[in-house]
Fold:
Amino acid sequence: MTKGNFPVEKLKGIETPFYYYDTDLLKKTLKIVKEGTKKYGYIQHYAVKANANRRILELIASEGFGADCVSGNEVKAAITAGFPASKIVFAGVGKTDKEINLALDLNIFCFNVESMPELIVINELAAKKGKTAQVALRINPNVDAHTHEYITTGLNENKFGFSMAHLDNVTEVLKSLKNIKLIGIHFHIGSQIEDIHTFSPLCEKVNELQDYFEGKGIKLENINLGGGLGVDYDDPDAHPMPDFQGYFDLFNKGLKQREGQTVHFELGRSIVAQCGVLVTKVSYVKHGESKTFVIVDAGMTDLIRPALYQAYHKVENISSDLPVQKYDIVGPICESSDVFVKDYELNETKRGDILVLRSAGAYGEIMASQYNCRDLPKPYFSDKI
Ligand SMILES: *Cc1c(COP(=O)(O)O)cnc(C)c1O
Structure:
């Protein structure tokens, strides 16, 4: 059984729970993404919400990526970490006036607009500043991402984006919005999409929509396809990276990209998930009636994905090589959903052992909370411990 490449002795000396990031893997991943996008002239905006750790953002910014933000504070964090405003896109169904004003003041590249009332507000606020806001319409393509219902976003009943049925009206209204410049269309159909062929119907929808806009005399300079590429939570050692090349190739084949048009992506999870792990210490091994519980010092406050989406994270006991036993691995939080995994085979475990929860770099640290007045988990980096 592989334990990955963990510096066990060093990790043992750090107060648990904490996040540990493999910066080499992150850099390798960024390099592959860069090669994939460069091949076709695509632009990648890292989805900040997956992990907004300052150092992670700085590393990604330093490789020349843009940023995809979903709040004003994410826009600020991106700028602070070195992303140029000219490469920042800003999505979200509920942008507040304050957030829109901030983004206008910073001259971000594009607002990914999700509704008619939002378009009208952006137009008004831009007019007050004597500016023109560049916008892309987020369109809900009604494509099934075949993923968990909480992380699918591209179906008609979702709250995100314009439905295609309303586009006639939108293009009409846009003519009267003098402080808005339509520069493209935007999509994001969901997250943790494991089969890249799920993106094929998206390509077809985009092609149809391009024809539709051209029929209206509207030239789209930018097509933004969002993120959503999944990672292998079951076997992170076999697949430390998803098939980025296959993913970009699929779009290159499927999309009818127009002359002079730029294609954008907003990958989040697939860039940062595998480089992060949550490190935790076993507080108690408790024998129940029919089960044995491994109670660790990390909980849903440190990594909420299992409690929130029934997500699976591979767990390894890096302190034990003993034969495996079956355990429920649970946290200390006073909630029944504070369970990482049930009936799980782990090397025989005792109090004080160190466990790592793998593939926790995306939607991990950033979703941590202080419920139960707990401390937030600290981040550590492989090249700085
Ligand atoms: C969350 C999100 C992303 C990133 O999704 P991943 O599954 O992490 O790649 C991209 N674009 C938008 C608009 C998002 O909301």
Observations:
- The domain at 2-18+274-384 is CATH 2.40.37.10 (Lyase, Ornithine Decarboxylase; Chain A, domain 1).
- The mean pLDDT is 95.
